[in-house]
Amino acid sequence: MVGRGEEVTCGKISIYFWGVSATRPFAEREPPCAIVASCSSIILLDVGEGCQKALEHFNLGFNKRMVVLISHLHGDHYLGLPPLLHTLSLSGRSEGLMIIGPPYLHRALQTYDLRHDFPLVFAEVWGVQGVLDLRWWAGFTISYVAAPHAPLSYSYVIRYPDIPHLDSSKLDEAGIPREARRSLVEHGYVVVDGREFRLKDFLRSIDPGPVIAYSGDTLPNAAFIARSKGADVMIHEATFSELEEKAKTAPHSSPVDAAEAALKARAKLLVLTHFSTRYRDLEKLVDEARRIFPRTIYAFKGLVVQLTTKTPRTIFLRKFEEV
Ligand SMILES: [Zn+2]
Ligand SMILES: [Zn+2]
């Protein structure tokens, strides 16, 4: 169990689930909101109403370097942004915040009084797909892929950098001092006494960086699957049961669609989310997916998925408990 006061530690990525409902709050379910936390930054995956409560609930604080990813401009996915900014301002935030979302996101928020005393950057993505390299600022890259849902909808794939392990005997042999080794890893080369050394000549092994794929709202999408190849965690919407007539007409995915996406992408874990208010019992939905992709769970308020950055990757599932 995870309790209050647990720090986000390096060497682990934690995904905190808060809002898992489609369209509107329903019973215990909040509108879409999940948080990916590493030791360098946190990422909000959509910001439904009340999403800022998750930061407090999971004890993540209000002043961490933060990137917000908005999948599309349906109200359940972005209307929590103005209150989030308000709460962050009232908390005395000073750290920067970057909001990434579809075209017209900034314009959609113009009518709100977005007061803030901290650096705020809006980055609107355009086109069919692309990559934003935020390694310099937040420690990861983000791929975005247009999603077949509403116009200007996007899915996102977060990639943390690979972790190289160096051969220390080779480094000693070459006379590369300890203080220069960090620079070798960060830049791929280092110059010592006028001689240039390349990282590739000193590699013992590489741990591939964690990959987290987030579908947002979408119909099945081959481009998203292609971008998600090898994802450690795929968070995929599963709004309607495959048995539902509406699953055939609405621009959403069923648990079966999500499972097929995870299978094709060779994901390690599939987390279903964005459930229609017509379902109280989510076990039936998850069973539909497990017939195709057994490593499927459903998201709920308080679920924490933790993965190690080292390989072999270890993934822990926990329920957050207040203490
Ligand atoms: Zn939605
Ligand atoms: Zn939508």
- Low-confidence parts, pLDDT < 50 over ≥5 residues? 1-7
Amount of helix: 10-25%
Structural class label: alpha/beta
- Rg over alpha carbons: 21 Å
Q: Would you state the CATH class of the largest domain?
A: Alpha Beta
Number of helices: 10
**Count of folded domains:** 2
Number of strands: 19
Q: CATH topology of the largest domain, what is it called?
A: Metallo-beta-lactamase, Chain A
Structural description of this entry:
The N and C termini lie close together (10 Å). The protein has ten helices and 19 strands. It has two domains: 12-162 and 208-319, Metallo-beta-lactamase, Chain A (4-Layer Sandwich); 165-202, no CATH class. The chain has helices at residues 52-57, 75-78, 81-90, 105-108, 168-174, 178-187, 222-227, 246-249, 255-265, 283-290, and strands at 12-19, 33-37, 42-47, 66-69, 97-101, 120-124, 129-133, 141-146, 154-159, 163-166, 189-192, 195-198, 203-207, 211-214, 233-237, 269-273, 296-298, 303-308, 315-319. The longest helix is centred in the C-terminal third of the chain and has 11 residues, at 255-265. Mean pLDDT is 92; it is low at 1-7. The chain has 323 residues and is α/β, with parallel strands linked by helices. The strands form four sheets. It has an eight-stranded mixed β-sheet with strand order 6-5-4-3-2-1-18-19. Strands 7-8-9-14-15-16-17 form a seven-stranded mixed β-sheet.
